Amino acid sequence: MQSSRRTFLKSAVALTGAAMITRPSSLFGMKTKNELTGVQLYSVREEMKADPLGTLKQLAAMGYRHVEHANYIDRKFYGWSAKEFKKILDDLGMTMPSGHTVMRGDHWDESKKDFTDAWKYTIEDAAILGQKFVISPSMDQRIRRSLDDLKRFMEIFNKSGELCKKAGMKFGYHNHDFEFSEKFGNETLYDLILKHTDPDLVMQQLDVGNMYNAGAKAIDFINKYPGRFPSMHVKDMIQGNEDANHKYDSTILGKGIIPVKEIIDAGRKKGGTIHFIVEQEAYQGKSPLECMKEDLEVMKKWGYV
């Protein structure tokens, strides 16, 4: 009886994950029940470090119902086990549909042709939290030294997608700016990532602000790769410090120079986007929590909450 129940639950999770991840092209442009707006907790990183429970309570009081983590260390989310963190979120009426954990080269054991226990635990704990997307937010420079190195790692991305799929989830990648400034031949690193990953196994979380630092525009990539961006980091940018690596800083939505509303509308209509994750990393004299409140009000005004 217990075995049958486990089989049923496993099938239900897989079907639910597939429903969340798949969005028929005929529905592009329509708000669906699977669509959500959340907040990337890196936006309040110092607050989460000092008082994680109190910070989550404040975000919940603002009206945020979904969070995306940026802290998973030794099988703990902000110091809590997966089950403990899930209960905290449940009690606050919140969910965690996605999270950021870097998949490193050493998470794959080439001698065994298998993932290490550390990466398997990452997937296991994400499933306990009810995540739909397990997202790697970075790529080590050693992985992109050559086109062959990159292609080999994209094969591992696909294998991670297979592992996530077994747990009813999808593996994903989150861009910064180097993916658009670095090239092999005439193709950008980002073009190559999308070219060599199976969209049924590997989703893309498009950070519309990060790419702006490399001169790339989100609209161009949404038009070029329709349906490839189930998740999006909703971010606005202003002129930053004039140094080579950080031309722009993030700011409150609608206050910067990126046409954010146009981008997220295109994501909804053409990009296949169902998760709109607010992220702000610079605050121009305001507190991070004040900014998160203002960002959510803008998203409400735009019809995304």
Attribute tags:
305 residues; TIM Barrel; two-stranded antiparallel sheet; 16 strands
Question: How is this structure best described in words?
Answer:
- By secondary structure, this protein is an alpha/beta fold.
- It has a single domain, classed as Divalent-metal-dependent TIM barrel enzymes (TIM Barrel), CATH 3.20.20.
- It contains 11 helices and 16 strands.
- The strands form 5 sheets. The chain has an 8-stranded parallel barrel, surrounded by 4 helices.
- A hairpin with a 2-residue loop joins strand 3 and strand 4.
- The longest helix is centred in the N-terminal third of the chain and has 20 residues.
- The radius of gyration is 19 Å and the shape is globular.
- The termini are far apart.
- The N terminus is likely disordered.
Number of domains: 1
Number of helices: 11
Output the CATH class name.
Answer: Alpha Beta
Number of strands: 16
Q: Flag low-confidence runs.
A: 1-28
Rounded to the nearest angstrom, the distance between the terminal CA atoms is 41 Å
- Structural class call reads alpha/beta
Outline = globular
Q: CATH H level: which superfamily? A: Divalent-metal-dependent TIM barrel enzymes
Give the averaged pLDDT, no decimals. 91
Strand order of the largest sheet: 1-2-5-8-9-12-13-16
Main beta-sheet strand count, sense and barrel state = 8 strands, parallel, barrel
Order of helices and strands: HEHHEEEHEEEHEHEHEEHEHEEEHEH
Helix content: 40-55%
CATH topology: TIM Barrel
Q: Percent of residues in beta strands?
A: 15-25%
**Rg (C-alpha, Å):** 19 Å
